[in-house]
Specification:
Strand order of the largest sheet: 14-13-12-17-18
Structural class: alpha+beta
Organism: Metasolibacillus meyeri
Shape: rod-shaped
Strand content: 25-35%
GO biological process, one term: cell division
Protein name: Cell division FtsA domain-containing protein
Helix content: 10-25%
InterPro entries: ATPase_NBD, FtsA/MreB, SHS2_FtsA
Keywords: Cell cycle, Cell division
Distance between the termini: 183 Å
Length: 713
């Protein structure tokens, strides 16, 4: 049994109408009509003048109806050049949250696609998310803590990142197509995308595991689609195509545009002269090679534009192969120039015509040309995989979806403008604290994911949907706000336990919150400023534990004698840490034992001896056969303003002044102050003063050991 398919390829320059017959296991091209636009009714794949396009469609329809009977339904394609591709990435904080599940990944992918949609809308005036269909997306990479990773499944870390490339189709493209067909009394039987149409006939699903690029080079634009890992991963377009070559010929040789187009088509032949007629009416034959050289910069520019877009869409990697279709693919030397841009061997870039389509036959009058790949693909793709609308309900909102692929709940959320953030409860408010001039961020609790119900049954964003389904999104639970006390941000290791002279102490850091003294258990508020000082040395610990007296005890023993310091370490106290001699600036560790030994303070006499100062002058003499000690104070020691006896102790840090009292020599008459001898009552007459048996006098100088006598005569 044979069935007829009517398909239209509505392009920028022309419209192609084709009759395709389906015969059991293959298709047969029965007829084809090509008509060029009389006016500029198409711009970049979108119908700008519905009336003109409808008129041309009607002409093609009537021409084909003369041979094949009434035509009421038609398959068409949305132009690939109307597709918009955006690359976007999204990152989320996953610290202290459960491991990543497939549903988490799906929701994060949806968030990245919506980010791409927002980027697209920012480029358009008065754009709305509902004006675009997402026709597909592909994940370029996953990252965990800035390191690229194969999958986020079951992973844990601080931050997860997903980058996607997403493709969108403006709704107005579809609506204008429907309007033009309606004016031509045609009903849309099926709809596909031009890149998908070409791919379906040239790159079957079994080949899509390969990284291959398909480029449809038309008149105004070059449409690009890339396959990899079993699917179409990206679509793109460059506003450079066959017209650039035609314009280069027109400019160089002063040709009217239609004549330049004719001359360009002559270049498709390998050799021979090219006949041209310039705007002045002069005819001339030019060598093929000369004309080719004149337009070669435009050829390389076209190759560069296509090659660079392929690399951008393919994550800066050259695909395994490139297939070229469309009239512009016949541009001389384009394949070799594209090989240079992509650094591919010559046999990896090729022009493909309808002869490359499997299970296809044609009428002899129909040429074997790459221009017909897309219209034939439209008819076949519309038959095998027609795109239809589906109607679903999302949270009581009726949504219509353009069914370009197997649709999922994620697609429904995109169409219903459900923000990815709505799929999770809000995270709790965080705390931002400054600790010793360093910012610390304490995250709030992660929100719980929203529950998704498909026709009342819990499901995930990856679940497939069908027309008539009802989707309900139940809001997730919000996370708790972050809370913290000082102890949470001050390391426990900063506290230590020590023993001072057998008394245990717990030493904690000095903490200030907003310049006020605080405890480790004080609750923190957002934007608090925390400063803490770690107590590490013996001196700091003694002050912190109110053992200042011990600190004074440890000071080096020093006195100031007549303004000069005198250090006497013999009288300083000793500090022992764990039994070892230490100093007050030594660090103290957790568990250390501190002990102090107090040495006796020196006396005034001890200091005088150290300074070689004589405080008292003592001599022994014999007077009248009696041993007598003569004593007199030579110097006074004034300690902190008071005269102290030689036996008094001198405190640490004392100020000492030495006063000379009596430095005169001893004389004979001094002995009477220390002797109890009395003048005999019976003594009469004269007397003689003797010193060591020799005559002397009362004011004569005497010395220790002298024998002094007074003899009466």
């Amino acid at each position: 049994m044979t069935s007829k398919l009517f398909a239209l390829d509505i392009g920028t320059r022309s419209v192609v109408g084709i009759i395709l017959e389906e015969r059991e296991q293959h298709f047969h091209v029965a007829d084809m009509v090509i008509k060029e636009h009389k006016e500029r009714a198409m711009v970049d794949g979108q119908i700008h003048n519905v009336l003109y396009v409808a008129e041309l469609i009607n002409e093609i329809k009537k021409t084909l109806e003369e041979k094949h009977g009434p035509l009421t339904k038609v398959s068409v394609a949305a132009a690939g050049r109307a597709l918009k591709t955006e690359q976007a990435s999204i990152s989320i904080n996953i610290k202290n949250r459960p491991i990543f599940t497939e549903e988490d990944i799906s929701r994060l992918e949806l968030q990245a696609v919506q980010q791409a949609q927002q980027q697209l809308l920012q480029q358009k005036d008065d754009a709305k998310a509902s004006h675009y269909y997402c026709v597909g997306y592909s994940v370029l990479y996953y990252k965990l803590d800035d390191e690229e990773i194969g999958s986020l499944l079951d992973q844990q870390g601080d931050e997860a990142t997903i980058e996607v490339i997403a493709t969108f189709l403006p709704r107005v493209v579809v609506e204008s197509l429907l309007a033009a067909l309606k004016r031509a009394d045609l009903e849309m039987e099926a709809l596909t995308l031009e890149p998908i149409a070409a791919i379906n006939v040239l790159i079957p699903p079994t080949m899509r595991r390969l990284n291959v690029a398909l480029v449809d080079i038309g008149a105004g634009t070059s449409d690009i689609a890339i396959t990899d890992k079993g699917t179409v991963i990206a679509y793109g377009m460059v506003p450079t195509a066959g017209d650039e070559i035609t314009e280069a010929l027109s400019d160089h040789y002063l040709l009217d545009f239609p004549l330049a187009e004719t001359a360009k088509r002559q270049l498709h032949k390998a050799d021979g002269d090219i006949l041209i007629q310039d705007i002045l009416g002069f005819d001339q034959y030019l060598p093929h090679e000369e004309v080719l050289q004149a337009i070669y910069p435009s050829i390389t520019a076209l190759a560069n534009a296509i090659g660079e877009e392929i690399l951008r869409l393919n994550n800066q990697l050259a695909p395994k192969a490139v297939m070229l279709v469309g009239g512009g693919s016949l541009t001389p030397n384009l394949t070799s120039e594209l090989c240079k841009v992509l650094q591919l061997p010559e046999n990896r870039v090729a022009v493909r015509g309808i002869d490359a389509i499997q299970n296809l036959t044609k009428e002899p009058s129909i040429p074997v040309t790459p221009e017909l790949v897309t219209p034939i693909g439209i008819a076949i793709a519309a038959k095998k995989a027609p795109i239809q609308y589906m109607t679903i309900t999302v949270n009581e909102q009726v949504v219509r979806l353009f069914e370009l692929k197997e649709m999922t709940i994620a697609d429904a959320f995109l169409a219903a403008n459900i923000r990815a953030k709505q799929l999770y409860g809000k995270p709790g408010h965080a705390l931002s604290i400054t600790v010793n001039n360093q910012a610390i961020f304490i995250a709030g609790e992660h929100g719980q994911p929203a529950q998704i119900l498909l026709n009342g049954t819990p499901t995930s964003t990856k679940s497939s949907i069908k027309s008539g389904d009802t989707i309900t999104l139940v809001a997730g639970q919000n996370g708790r706000d972050a809370t913290a006390v000082v102890r949470d941000i001050v390391d426990d290791a900063l506290s230590k336990k020590v023993t001072i002279n057998s008394t245990p102490y717990t030493i904690e850091p000095k903490v200030y919150v907003n310049t006020k003294v605080a405890t480790l258990d004080q609750a923190l508020q957002d934007r608090d400023i925390v400063d803490f000082q770690i107590i590490e040395t013996v001196e700091g610990i003694l002050k912190h534990t109110n053992n200042v007296a011990l600190l004074e005890q440890l000071r080096s023993y020093v006195v100031h004698v007549d303004g000069q310091p005198l250090y006497l370490p013999t009288f300083s106290s000793e500090l022992l840490i764990n039994g070892k001699l230490s100093k007050i600036h030594y660090p103290v560790q957790d568990g250390d034992r501190l002990a102090f030994t107090q040495n006796a303070l020196p006396t005034v006499q001890t200091l005088a001896n150290h300074l070689d100062l004589l405080l008292e002058d003592r001599i022994l003499v014999t007077f009248q056969d009696e041993r007598i000690e003569l004593v007199k104070i030579v110097r006074e020691i004034i300690v902190n303003g008071a005269v102290l006896s030689p036996q008094a102790t001198v405190p640490n840090g004392a100020t000492i002044k030495v006063n000379a009292v009596d430095h005169s020599p001893w004389i004979f008459q001094d002995v009477f102050r220390f002797s109890s001898w009395q003048l005999p009552t019976e003594a009469k007459g004269g007397f003689t003063i003797l010193r060591n048996g020799s005559p002397s006098s009362f004011d004569a100088e005497i010395f220790g050991g002298d024998t002094l006598e007074i003899k009466f005569t």
